[in-house]
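Supplementary Methods. Inverse-folding protocol.

Structures were first reduced to a discrete structure-token string of length 197. This string, shown here, constituted the complete conditioning input.
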């Protein structure tokens, strides 16, 4: 996704502004059920939301800014409980369960954001946010830098694939059961001892 600015600063956050922004976000999510974010035009978004273009431009530069703000709101919900959890691999179950529970609590939005009709910027933010902590933990357990990187990307790609499957399947497996499955896969799939590379 093209880098775009957040909502324009200096906008007064009165009740009317909050309602307008909420309406634009809801309309954006509704449109994303039908098409990719880069196919959504400002005119179409404004008409569907019942907002004029001047009002839109008072808050955003382009539709991608709305999607970015929706993603940031969701990421904040994911990170909030994680702040209390050490990302050390010994706490993997708590970590995975917290992420899955937050996705389940926000399943309607996640189904749209994590779909292939949307973009992968959201996933990239999760990968980047977890990277340093997990890499450092792996190195402290005896892996070399390159081994830790390989293990991390292997595990994260697999975990994200499982989450994608879960979302597309309509969240049929419970959070607790999926946590058990993912932790088992992560433990068996990670490199536990230095390799000869």
């Amino acid at each position: 996704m093209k880098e775009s600015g957040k909502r324009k600063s200096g906008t007064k956050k009165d009740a009317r502004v909050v309602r307008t922004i909420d309406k634009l976000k809801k309309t954006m999510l509704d449109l994303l059920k039908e098409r990719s974010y880069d196919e959504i035009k400002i005119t179409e978004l404004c008409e569907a939301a019942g907002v004029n273009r001047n009002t839109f431009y008072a808050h955003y530069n382009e539709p991608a800014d709305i999607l970015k703000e929706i993603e940031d709101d969701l990421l904040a919900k994911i990170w909030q409980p994680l702040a209390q959890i050490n990302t050390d691999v010994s706490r993997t179950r708590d970590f995975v369960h917290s992420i899955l529970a937050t996705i389940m609590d926000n399943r309607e939005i996640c189904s749209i954001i994590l779909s292939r009709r949307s973009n992968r910027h959201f996933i990239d933010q999760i990968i980047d946010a977890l990277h340093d902590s997990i890499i450092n933990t792996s190195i402290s357990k005896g892996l070399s830098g390159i081994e830790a990187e390989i293990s991390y990307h292997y595990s994260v790609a697999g975990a994200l694939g499982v989450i994608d499957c879960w979302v597309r399947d309509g969240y049929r497996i419970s959070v607790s059961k999926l946590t058990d499955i993912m932790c088992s896969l992560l433990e068996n799939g990670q490199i536990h001892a230095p390799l000869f590379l």
